[in-house]
Design a protein that fits this description.
Length: 280
């Protein structure tokens, strides 16, 4: 039997607008300009607050230093309902070329992903998705470096082969830990003309590339976490068409009463499935 304190805590958390957090490198940081994180936020408007926590240039080694700040475990606020972890493009920079300072060995990369998932689980995040680095268009990386920095390289600082190794490592970690994985390295290369159609500098995403990430991610959310589908998360206030100008409070009372019943049902199910934080 559930204790009243546990049930009340679950109801209180569900009554707040839930959050999704996108945690990653520059491909995530640029996701609102416009990009895949912006499209995710648009799809869940008035239902979920989508928080972008992207850090340009970061690898998993550096990102580990942010875990406790981005995802604190000493707060009264409920944990995010969903977190995406999207690193690897910088980890995969080759150790003997121009971006060597960002390189992280693939074994350490996998270990860092495990540590991130473990931390998120320890604070009660119920849904985690790993996203692999995208493929690399090596000729376009050479062009980008020359145009941006005035440096003509004989070989690129990143290769598609290396990116594929890190994508495989992320996918293996996801399978090991039982979390979904969106393998962009594989999915992008199935799109004809992906080199310029989905990537704008051999690495970062075009508008079409951002749209592709959003659609693939939304499909994965819908498949693996059906309770987080847009249609399953109610809006946090009544629609304006339900408000009677002559008796404004009625629509709000009905909406919040319906929400409360739904939250109580979900809270009971959630508390029955998982131990409380105090028990972890």
């Amino acid at each position: 039997m559930l204790g009243p304190a546990v049930l009340a805590s679950c109801v209180a958390q569900l009554a707040m607008r839930p959050t999704f957090v996108t945690f990653g490198d520059s491909i995530t940081q640029r996701g609102f300009a416009p990009g895949w994180t912006g499209q995710l936020a648009d799809a869940y408007q008035r239902r979920v607050d989508v928080l972008n926590r992207g850090y340009n240039g970061y690898n998993t080694r550096w990102a580990l230093q942010l875990l406790d700040r981005v995802f604190p475990n000493n707060t009264a606020a409920p944990p995010p309902r969903l977190v995406t972890i999207f690193f690897g493009a910088n980890d995969a920079a080759l150790p003997d070329r121009g971006s060597a300072r960002q390189h992280v060995p693939v074994e350490e990369y996998a270990s860092n992903l495990r540590a991130m998932v473990a931390h998120l689980r320890s604070i009660g995040v119920p849904a985690v998705i790993l996203i692999t680095p995208p493929p690399i268009s090596e000729p376009d990386r050479l062009v980008h470096v020359e145009k941006t920095y005035g440096v003509r390289l004989a070989v690129p600082e990143r290769t598609n082969e290396a990116a594929g190794q890190y994508a495989a490592a992320a996918e293996a970690v996801a399978q090991e830990l039982g979390v979904p994985c969106l393998n962009l390295w594989r999915a992008f290369q199935e799109v004809p003309g992906w080199q310029q159609g989905l990537l704008n500098d051999g690495l970062h995403l075009t508008q079409e590339g951002n749209a592709e990430v959003y659609h693939l991610l939304q499909a994965l959310i819908d498949e693996r976490f059906p309770e987080l589908r847009v249609s399953r998360i109610p809006q946090d206030a009544p629609d304006h068409s339900a408000i009677d100008p002559q008796d404004v409070p009625v629509a709000f009372e009905k909406h919040f009463a319906k929400q409360q019943r739904r939250h109580e049902t979900e809270a009971a199910q959630q508390a029955a499935r998982s131990p409380s934080r105090e028990e972890l």
